């Protein structure tokens, strides 16, 4: 009888050992580390939000990037808005609850850098693509399809002396030109004013708008309208607008992903600019999803750029950004 009890006890102990082994020896997916340096399931799962605002020009690029990222990381919400570069920096550079990224179609200004230092915010600039400032006209405008750099800029200058198309070419219609563009909230406005127009005043008749979609609509309905904005908005509205081919001294150049990316005289270089996103490095250190999204953005920047109307950056520029971000881990 005693031997039977011992046998029963051994059987029960054996069952318990097998059960313990099946449960992984007491370890669970909630532990922070498996003991051999490998991340657990919980640690590998990202969650939370990433908040981005800023440039309307960069918006199509970043919106596509966010969509792609969330398709692979369902527990992370990436919110992308487009207040404009300058308005975006105001939301980015605040003491509390600022955005994680600010997209920009210009470099950060000295006063914005000073404000970041005052607030103790570490800011890092990343180029994400190349854009070409594009001048668009109505589809019915078949006379101003080619202009020199000087001619197209004169239309927007207060001192340009151009009010009618015939002021540029006497064979063109003697009708009033309707110049348009994005307003001062946008880095594109500042690029036009500071770089292209050399900080000379806009003509009084210029119609400056907050929304790029409004500009597309206005130009598509007025044969005497001409507007400027990033190439991507033209590329996605080719059925409604035509682009001016600009002669920089070596013959007319059509804006395109190929010509925007060229460094030589055959390209669109005088009207080409880099576009950026600015990262709050402190947020990247505190929130894993922000750092992960930053790395994902740079790893996929070249593909998304080409898909959204931007010329991709060179490999070395991309790799330098990725190396910096990997160093924050």
Strand content: 15-25%
CATH class of the largest domain: Alpha Beta
The portion of residues assigned to helices is: 25-40%
What's the number of helices? Answer: 13
Distance between the termini: 64 Å
CATH architecture of the largest domain: 3-Layer(aba) Sandwich
Rounded average pLDDT? 89
**CATH superfamily grouping of the largest domain:** Periplasmic binding protein-like II
N to C succession of SSEs? HHEHEHEHEEHEHEHEHEEEHEHHH
Give a quick account of the main beta sheet: strands, pairing sense, barrel closure.
9 strands, mixed
Radius of gyration: 28 Å
How many separate domains make up the residues? Answer: 2
- List the uncertain runs: 1-43
The structure class reads alpha/beta
So what's the overall shape?
elongated
Can you walk through the features of this model?
The chain is an alpha/beta fold. It has two domains: 50-130 and 274-326, D-Maltodextrin-Binding Protein, domain 2 (3-Layer(aba) Sandwich); 131-273, D-Maltodextrin-Binding Protein, domain 2 (3-Layer(aba) Sandwich), CATH 3.40.190. It contains 13 helices and twelve strands. The chain has helices at 2-22, 41-44, 59-72, 85-92, 110-119, 149-154, 187-196, 212-220, 231-235, 257-260, 281-286, 288-307, 315-326; strands at residues 48-54, 76-80, 101-104, 123-138, 146-148, 178-182, 207-209, 225-230, 241-243, 245-247, 252-253, 272-280. Strands 1, 2, 3, 4, 6, 7, 8, 9 and 12 form a nine-stranded mixed beta sheet that branches. Strands 5-10-11 form a three-stranded mixed beta sheet. The protein is elongated. Mean pLDDT is 89; it is low at 1-43.
């Amino acid at each position: 009888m005693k031997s039977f009890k011992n046998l029963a006890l051994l059987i029960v102990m054996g069952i318990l050992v097998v059960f313990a082994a099946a449960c992984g020896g007491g370890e669970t997916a909630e532990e922070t580390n498996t003991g051999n340096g490998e991340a657990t399931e919980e640690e590998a799962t990202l969650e939370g939000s990433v908040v981005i605002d800023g440039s309307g020009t960069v918006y199509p690029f970043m919106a596509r990037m966010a969509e792609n990222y969330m398709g692979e990381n369902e527990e992370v919400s990436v919110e992308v808005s487009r207040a404009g570069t300058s308005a975006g920096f105001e939301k980015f550079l605040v003491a509390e609850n600022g955005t994680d990224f600010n997209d920009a179609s210009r470099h950060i200004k000295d006063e914005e850098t000073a404000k970041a230092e005052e607030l103790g915010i570490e800011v890092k600039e990343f180029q994400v693509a190349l854009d070409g400032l594009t001048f668009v006209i109505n589809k019915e405008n078949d006379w101003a399809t080619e202009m020199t750099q000087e001619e197209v800029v004169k239309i927007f200058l207060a001192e340009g002396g151009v009010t009618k198309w015939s002021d540029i070419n006497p064979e063109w219609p003697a009708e009033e030109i309707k110049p348009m563009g994005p307003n001062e909230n946008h880095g594109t406005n500042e690029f036009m004013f500071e770089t292209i127009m050399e900080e000379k005043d806009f003509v009084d008749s210029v119609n400056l708008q907050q929304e790029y979609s409004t500009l597309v609509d206005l130009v598509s309905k007025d044969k005497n309208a001409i507007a400027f904005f990033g190439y991507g908005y033209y590329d996605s509205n080719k059925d409604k607008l035509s682009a001016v081919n600009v002669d920089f001294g070596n013959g007319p150049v059509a804006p395109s992903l190929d010509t925007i990316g060229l460094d030589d005289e055959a390209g669109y270089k005088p009207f080409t600019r880099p576009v950026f996103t600015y990262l709050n490095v402190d947020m990247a250190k505190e929130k894993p999803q922000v750092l992960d999204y930053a790395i994902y953005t740079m790893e996929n920047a070249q593909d998304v750029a080409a898909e959204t109307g931007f010329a991709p950056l060179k490999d070395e520029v991309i790799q330098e950004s990725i190396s910096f971000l990997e160093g924050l881990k």
